Amino acid sequence: MATAALTALTVLPAVPAAAAATAEVTIRVDRSYTETVQEWRDIPFTCPTNQVLTVRMHTGDENGATSYRYSLVTLEG
């Protein structure tokens, strides 16, 4: 087992730390959809798979409408 691990380490190319630190990454947010619910009715909100909650807006009192915006966030680079 130890021999296999050492062999794997010697086969992999070395990556300079400076090169890894200067890599450019772009964060892209694609807004998907806004859904409005009445939270006081205990209707749960769940983001779709692979989406993240990016905005929560509420109007009025505890009986007001709550809107959720979810988006797809990707890293490029």
Question: Could you describe the 3D structure shown?
Answer:
The longest helix has 10 residues, at 2-11. This protein is of the alpha+beta class. 19% of the residues lie in helices and 39% in strands. Residues 1-10 have low confidence and may be disordered. The radius of gyration is 23 Å and the shape is elongated. The protein starts with a helix and ends with a strand. It has helices spanning 2-11, 17-21, and strands spanning 26-37, 52-58, 66-76. It has two helices and three strands, in the order ααβββ. A three-stranded antiparallel sheet has the order 1-3-2, with no helix packed on it.
Individual helix count: 2
Poorly predicted parts:
1-10
- How are the strands of the largest sheet arranged? 1-3-2
Backbone CA Rg = 23 Å
State the total count of DSSP E strands: 3
User: How would you classify the helix and strand content by structural class?
Assistant: alpha+beta
Largest sheet: 3 strands, antiparallel
Termini gap = 35 Å
**Mean model confidence by pLDDT:** 75
Helix content: 10-25%
Sum up the overall morphology in one term: elongated
N-to-C order of helices and strands: HHEEE
Indicate the proportion of strand residues: 35-45%
Quick structural summary:
The chain has 77 residues and is an alpha+beta fold.
Can you tag this structure with a few keywords?
77 residues, alpha+beta, 2 helices, elongated, disordered N terminus
